[in-house]
Amino acid sequence: MTETQGSIRFSKANIVYPNGVVGMKDLDLEIKPGEFVVVVGSSGAGKSTLLRAVNGLNKLTSGRVEVNGRQVPSQDGRELRELRKQIGMIFQDFRLVKRLSVMSNVLMGRLGHVPGWRTLLNLWPAADREIAMRALERVGIPDKAWVKASDLSGGQQQRVGIARALAQEPAIILADEPVASLDPVTTHQVMQDLVRINRELGITTLVNLHFLDLAREYGQRIIGLRFGELVYDGSADTVTDRDFEEIYGREVREDDVLDEGQASA
Ligand SMILES: Nc1ncnc2c1ncn2[C@@H]1O[C@H](COP(=O)(O)OP(=O)(O)OP(=O)(O)O)[C@@H](O)[C@H]1O
To answer: Which residues cross the membrane (predicted)?
Structure first.
């Protein structure tokens, strides 16, 4: 790995949507390789906008964003596809092909690495199958490889989503509200998986989270957004309820925390 592999840097970055809504405002932000960053902010604060700007799904209106030390291309094309190969995405709704096996879903993470004709004929090279199986081992469900994705629990489906991202062998993982569809117990398991994988593999990880207690518990660094603007950037160990109130522009409420009794922690 080069020194810049896994790095993200925004400089004076702005995104104004065609309808005039400001999604990102004068963002200066540097994320170092291997960091685990939790992004918080109320609905519409610009969390998804930020994540999607990293892999070029959202284009900047002005300013600059660099990933792995290189500017994210402003045009779709080969260069952007190459960059996206190195960025794994994890979604709230898992985005699995439910009628296919777990293994087939995880192999999708290899799509950018294997010639199209082989994938169409389902002739995946042994090395890629091996990578997919290792990814399933990493999330603790190698025994589910040949089960249909639709037959898994929500937590297991999200683990397949994580394994698919890992199969890309990415430098960066972007997780957009990865636990929003899960029950509290499974939520903690999936967050623990993400943290463990970050520590084991050193993959830079950005996680958008709604619940403040999860941000505190699992974040290393917390970034707070409000109206597209960076209003907080600090350690999860020292973030206070007052900081969260400033990020949200209001008092912390019961529905901001997953586990009861944590509202005034
Ligand atoms: N494609 C779009 N066109 C126009 N406005 C958009 C578009 N995508 C997002 N926005 C607006 O940009 C702002 C930031 O949205 P974004 O989805 O990034 O927020 P968020 O913090 O992820 O919110 P949530 O927690 O609800 O997902 C919002 O006001 C949203 O309505």
So the answer is: none
**144-184-109-88 Cα dihedral, nearest 10 degrees:** -160
pTM: 0.93
* CB-ligand 1 contact for 34 (6 Å cutoff): no
ipTM of this predicted complex?
0.96
Residues 6+ apart with CB under 8 A from 77: none
- Average pLDDT along the chain: 92
Query: Closest ligand 1 atom, CA of 49?
Result: 18
Domain for residue 262, yes or no? Answer: no
Tell me the mean pLDDT in the region 199-209: 97
Which atom of ligand 1 sits closest to the CA of residue 225? 21
Report the pLDDT value the prediction gives residue 119, as an integer from 0 to 100: 67
Ligand 1 binding pocket includes 19 (Cβ within 6 Å) = yes
Question: How many domains does one find in the chain?
Answer: 1
Domain range for residue 97? 8-252
CA distance 4 to 126: 30
CATH number at residue 131: 3.40.50.300
